[in-house]
Amino acid sequence: MKYVSENMIRRAQSRFDFLGQIAARSQFGGYGLLANGIMFAVVSEGELYLRANDQIEYRFRLRGMANLVYAKRGLPVLLRYYWVDTILWDDDLVLRNFVWQAHQGAKTEVLSKNSSSIRLKDLPNISASLERLLWKAGITSADELRLEGAKRCYLKLRTLRRSLGVNVLLALAGAISGHHSAVLPLMMRSELIEWFEIHIRSPKAAQYEAA
Q1: Taking a C-beta distance cutoff of 8 angstroms, is the pair 185, 24 a contact?
Q2: Whole-angstrom Cα distance, residue 200 to residue 183?
Q3: Which residues contact 107 (CB under 8 A, 6 or more apart)?
Q4: Is 84 in contact with 49 (CB distance < 8 Å)?
Q5: How far is it, in rounded angstroms, from Cα 144 to Cα 142?
Q6: What are the backbone angles phi and psi of residue 139, rounded to the nearest 5°?
Q7: Which of 29, 54, 89, 118 suits 126 as a labelling partner, its CA being 20 to 30 A distant?
Q8: Phi-psi map region of 49: left, alpha, beta (phi>0 left; psi -120 to 50 alpha)
Q9: pTM of the model
Q10: CA distance linking residue 4 with residue 89, whole number of Å
Q11: Residue 44's beta-bridge partner residues?
């Protein structure tokens, strides 16, 4: 079943790349899908479920999409995630619209939460010195860090300090996903390192930075 879910994650990453880079993390016994730190979908037992909000949930229901059922302490709980069936997968225009609205709704919910009391240094991997550097880059809250995403934040930090290596990129990704940088999911770690090698460390990238 893990293999089937991983295939679905790759399918979603390819199909929904208009949201940007999509990461996966453990969630509800399956995998949450995140774009720019915002979780907009879940993969469970090889199936995709989109996150609902007050603006779009009625459309999911009108289309007959089923809720994701999560067993909590042995009791079934209906979650506000709705199943993408084969027919919807084949309707690219509607599916892209649903995915976009799911992401935007989730983004709005994140912004509406009062997280001002959570300092950046309270997140995993963020030291006081890294917090200060993030402040200088204009990133002052956990919400801003999540919305910018690890790569954008890292590039902003690089404008202030060119010596920052891949470990800082991994630290930012871990802070967003809730992981210590040493135990990032393998898929996430590999993708970030590959991005770093291509866009930061490669000779072409080095020439671009020197220009």
Answers
A1: yes
A2: 23
A3: 36, 38, 147
A4: yes
A5: 5
A6: -110, 105
A7: 29
A8: beta
A9: 0.54
A10: 16
A11: 47
CB-based contacts of 89: which residues, under 8 Å, 6+ apart? Answer: 95
Closest alpha carbon to 134 in 116, 153, 159, 148: 153
Location of structure tokens 């009391």: 117
C-alpha span between 158 and 39 (Å, rounded): 26
For residues 165 and 198, give the distance between their C-alpha atoms in angstroms, rounded to a whole number.
Answer: 13
**Contact 81/27 with Cβ under 8 angstroms?**
no
Distance CA 75, CA 80 (A): 16
b/e map 12-22, b = 16+ CB within 10 Å: bbeebeebebb
Looking at the DSSP bridge assignments, the partners of residue 30 are 27
In tens, the pLDDT along 178-196 reads 888 888 888 889 999 999 9
DSSP string, the chain: -HHHHHHHHHHHHHHTGGG--EEEEEETTEEEEEETTEEEEEEETTEEEEEP-TTTHHHHHHTTPPEEEEEETTEEEEEEEEE--HHHHH-HHHHHHHHHHHHHHHHHHHHHS--TT--GGGSTT--HHHHHHHHHTT--SHHHHHHH-HHHHHHHHHHH-TT--HHHHHHHHHHHHT--GGG--HHHHHHHHHHHIIIIISHHHHHHHH-
Q: Output Rg (C-alpha) for the chain, integer angstroms.
A: 18
pLDDT at residue 21 tops 70: yes
